Amino acid sequence: MTPDNTSVLLIYTGGTIGMIENVETGALENFNFEQLQKHIPELQRFMFRIGTYQFDPPMDSSDMDPDAWRKLVRVISDNYDRYSGFVILHGTDTMAYTASALSFMLEGLNKPVILTGSQLPIGVLRTDGKENLLTSIEIATACHPDGQPIVPEVSIFFENHLMRGNRTTKMNAENFNAFRSFNYPVLASVGIHIKYNNVQIRTNGRHHELKPHYLLDTNVAVLKLFPGIQENVIASVLATEGLRAVVLETYGSGNAPRKEWFLRRLRNASEQGIVIVNVTQCSAGTVEMERYETGYQLMQAGVVCGYDSTTESAVTKLMFLLGHDYPPAKVRELMGRPLAGEITV
Question: Which residues form the L-asparaginase N-terminal domain (predicted)?
Answer without folding.
Answer: 8-199
